[in-house]
Amino acid sequence: MVNFNHYYFYFHNFVLNYHLYKPMDIDELFYDAVDLLKQMITIPSFSREENKVADHLQSYIEEKGISTFREGNNVWCNSAGFDLKKPTILLNSHIDTVKPVEGWKKNPFVPFSEEDKIYGLGSNDAGASVVALLHTFFRLTMKDQPYNLIFLASAEEEISGKNGIESILPLLPPIEFAVVGEPTNMQAAVAEKGLMVLDCTAYGVSGHAAREEGKNAIYEAMKDIQRIEQYSFPKVSDTLGKVKMNVTQINAGTQHNVIPDRCSFVVDVRTTDCYTNHEVYEIIKENIKSEVKARSFRLNSSGISSEHPFVKRVRMLERNTFGSPTLSDQALMPFPSVKIGPGNSSRSHTADEFILSKEIREGIELYIKLLDGLILK
Question: Taking residues 131-156, what's their average pLDDT?
Fold first, then answer.
């Protein structure tokens, strides 16, 4: 196993086995991908606890004769004969899952097949994308491409953790473009909303609830919450629509007969390409009286030009493009990217999560059509 911390070592990462150079048809890729997905389902891989599934995936890749790189619970590999004179494409999806929600009727860690459905935690989000992208990598590296290719299975995506892709990007060579695997029905998200979480505090003056004294912080917070509900940002994105704000948590008071002197509430803000997170933060501060603190500014909106060669291929293959309201590791990528993968986002984080096996096959086929021979410059 290889674990180097600087990209120049990529020059020495060669395919060690002829296996990838024998013919591999779509059926073989598809069957192998489904088998791997079922194996991954049996291994719990909650965010920050992905080590066992990372071990399994790393062994699987190395059994194919490909050297791997490992940092924490992130595993990656690159195409043979890596040449920095060529542009580099990153194929990325995540191996962590949320914890099972209430309502599962099936064991979330036992892959169960029924007709064309494969049930299991992480099957849709985003195990199907992981295995489809990996087997696409196998197929594309059977021949010389006009680009270098890196496959990265990353950790901590579900919690936007700092030990996931954010920790790996500095270890990679310069990336020209990325394909991010998430369940989109193999339609292409060419833009994605960012995320900013705000902790807000309204202040009052404590007093006895039975007397006419004090200043109720809950009422002060309610005024700001109403301002947030009613405010509309003037700029509207062509691909992502409006900036969206929702108050999602509120907390105040110590006991029933004491006027609360502070009330805290949380605001979930979904930003667009019309504003940076810092700009949205300043606008909100100007429009409410409560104290406002941002947990982070790092998850900005992302987008790609409609004239990008990959996007042009998407249109040629008559796939739809759209702006995604949900967050992914795209938010941490300082280079062009498109989010596209097998499965349906509405199944993510639900009881009895499943993927259709035909969606995995379609994913592999379409990834290959979109990427094979793609010229980026």
Answer: 97
Length reported for the chain: 377
- Chain mean pLDDT for the chain: 93
**If DSSP codes are grouped into helix, strand and coil, which group holds residue 168?**
helix
Stated pTM of the model = 0.90
CB-neighbour burial class of residue 335 (10 A; exposed 0-12, middle 13-18, buried 19+): middle
Cα separation of 118 and 34, whole Å?
Answer: 9
What is the DSSP code (8-state) at residue 306?
A: T
pLDDT of residue 2: 43
Q: At what angle do helices 357-371 and 309-316 cross, to 10 degrees?
A: 130
Residue 79 pLDDT exceeds 80: yes
Residue 328's CB is within 10 A of a number of other CB atoms, namely: 27
Residue 13: pLDDT over 90: no
- Is the distance from CB of 343 to CB of 336 less than 8 angstroms? no
Tokens linked to 298: 């790092």
DSSP string, 251-299: EE-SSTTEE-SEEEEEEEEEE-TTS-HHHHHHHHHHH-SSEEEES-S--
